[in-house]
């Protein structure tokens, strides 16, 4: 099967919510007014690590307009994880709605709800807290030592592998086929470091909770995981799932930061206390400090290589800083290996050792790339270093070693997300074409020649990186959909998939339309409302196109059978002779009826029934998308400034269901990765206070400094995907760090292993070289 | 309608101000210390977005007396007598402005949170420079942060809208 047979899939279809968004329709969480709304605010810890000895809220409670003040005494104490993951979650249960201990500057102390934002703010100042400061630890390697402050000393936390050494998660895995590094001609060992990084979704986290006219709690929230939110809030506040409805309106970006219960529990607790609608919205500063971040990482990678280009051994030892709580601690750490090590064949021995470590800093969580970003920075830098050692062209070295069609890796089986993985072989790969097209687009070989003997203070260089990711979590993720037919031949598509701005509502309609021989516009899509739509794990792990897409395809196929059964009666033809095309059911002999006739027959005339079906999808594989990235850069050796002159990203996402939107996903991921490379880093004072918690001092790229970037889609056909599709949303973020690091080495001969590559680091490295 | 109203007086911590919003004259009762962003949202102009509240992200961009302005930095009372355009006033789903159409057609809208502000910046640009170069577009939209798109398709959208405005002629 190939893409040219499609009528709706892989064609240009405009994103169905785009016009409303461009016209400023009130579609986001905070765009709806509620009568009698109370404004919730949180009191944040000023201490990195302390016990709350005393907390006096009387003055706050008595202040004008204040309706509720909550401390740890007023909320249920249920250890849980805030990570929005499948149940039972692989993350430690180390979080409480409120606690009598604070573990980082920005941790929750208390919550208030008041009639105005000003009254809520004023009430916070009236809460008197007496802290007993505890020694704090900010460096994960210090936190691992005997005698380090124990951040989770509470007795009721669960699934912390070694609380005494602040280990929130650990995993080890080894394949041993002989003596370590025996066959290697060269052994390369480096440690690659990445700092705290922020998602920077432009919409801050916002939650409004209220009661419907049955007294049920409605949670209107900017979330990627509505069904997990329902389950976790029920668990944390000890209320039945049936008493909760979670509604996901349009979401202003998430990138992983909204794969988390961040405000839903505490906002709900304030509503339960007051019986009133309550809103909490984060300020931008709060999104930096008290939401989630990327896990800072130290990846030690030791690899062996033979002169002929064979990679003999690989030992990867990763220490992630998970901050004060272990949200996503195990899974991000495992993905740093499971999404990267299979990229290249390692002939003899493979070892992975991963630890996620608590510190008294902000909480790390899910972030686009999910560990693979940290892992590929190490791997793809190391690939260039190894190629240099053996004197092989880094492009040829990669081509020789990357995983090929039909091949597997012991890592797929050994390392899943939080548990054993699933064996799989590669069933589609367009990496060769991706590399070739990228080389051509960036004019690699001609430029290499041109850059050979450079003089003067400004030098140019080229670098590349190869990448893979996954498409959902195999044998964990499940998605489902319902489709029902209306009189005019239109359909309602109800899906649990959470469109967070990615366009999944549109591509899921395209998939259903392809099956039913109609247009995407024939679908009215409702997504991610726990009362109205069937279950879906949510928008994460690059799962929506692959898992939810397959669920929608299966559902549409069931509906097609039902339509054909009715049409066979109308047309008096054999079912087998019928097909759906252009809004009609057409028989082989040309007889036809419209879908509207079919719908009306089933609803009003004969054997009356609603044409409706549901189906679920659960995958046994997670076919990786692949990518080849190329950077052409300029380095000013006097200032240390790196300028990207051109960036080309070729991505094989199988069949792009909506090519324009797939390009957009990749463009955004790449620019986010470029930010990680050149400017982004959260900074902290010596006592753990964030120093640059805002867009003024945490620099993300704007139009003026965005370099020329191109996304090239490399079509392949993934047999397990809906119409050949794989994932696309995350992979692009992993490329810029190693591609630019390699280009920097190519330009000026210095290797940076510590991101971001700011001018001061480049200058220091150049000075060191002299 | 430039500031030719009676002297502004606060009573009970409130100011009564008059704004011409999207061509309609409206009275606003704004709190002392309230910014134009919050006042506009409170009066139903939900397209004006709060992304940072510190003048860094551009999501609250509105056109005040012809100039793109950050509503989160303008004390509401000081806008008394001003003409304010929000994206609701530019076009509607039934009759969208060419820039709104261009953003949709270019695939420039992902989450859409930054889009109203960006479209208003783009409108101000095209009012000033009908045939902007790519560099001019990049400079002019520099204050509107987007984390979804990499700006690639948004810049294409502005180019397409400019071309359409010129009657399809290349710049």
Q: What average pLDDT do the residues of chain B reach?
A: 93
Runs of chain B in which pLDDT lies below 50 for 5 or more consecutive residues are none
Q: How many DSSP helices of chain A?
A: 19
Helix and strand sequence of chain B = EEEHEEEHHHHH
Please write the CATH class name of the domain at 34-134 and 199-290 in chain A: Alpha Beta
* Termini separation of chain B: 35 Å
**Molecular shape of chain A:** globular
Biggest sheet of chain A, strands in spatial order?
Answer: 3-5-1-12-9-10-11
Per the CATH scheme, the topology name of the domain at 34-134 and 199-290 in chain A is Aldehyde Oxidoreductase, domain 3
Looking at the overall shape, the CATH architecture of the largest domain in chain B is Roll
Quick structural summary:
Chain A is of the alpha+beta class and 770 residues long. By secondary structure, chain B is an alpha+beta fold.
Walk me through this protein's architecture.
The complex is a heterodimer of chains A (770) and B (171). In chain A, the strands form 6 sheets. In chain A, strands 3-5-1-12-9-10-11 form a 7-stranded mixed sheet, with helices on both faces. In chain A, strands 7-15-14-13-8 form a 5-stranded mixed sheet. In chain A, 27% of the residues lie in helices and 23% in strands. Among the domains of chain A are: 3-26 and 478-618, Aldehyde Oxidoreductase, domain 4; 34-134 and 199-290, Alpha-Beta Complex (Aldehyde Oxidoreductase, domain 3). Chain B has 171 residues and is α+β, with helices and mostly antiparallel strands. Chain B contains 6 helices and 6 strands, in the order E-E-E-H-E-E-E-H-H-H-H-H. Chain B has helices at 36-42, 87-90, 98-105, 115-128, 134-140, 152-165, and strands spanning 10-11, 14-21, 24-31, 61-64, 67-70, 83-85. In chain B, strands 1, 2, 3, 4, 5 and 6 form a 6-stranded mixed sheet that branches. The longest helix of chain B is centred in the C-terminal third of the chain and has 14 residues, at 115-128. Chain B is elongated, with a radius of gyration of 17 Å. The mean pLDDT of chain B is 93.
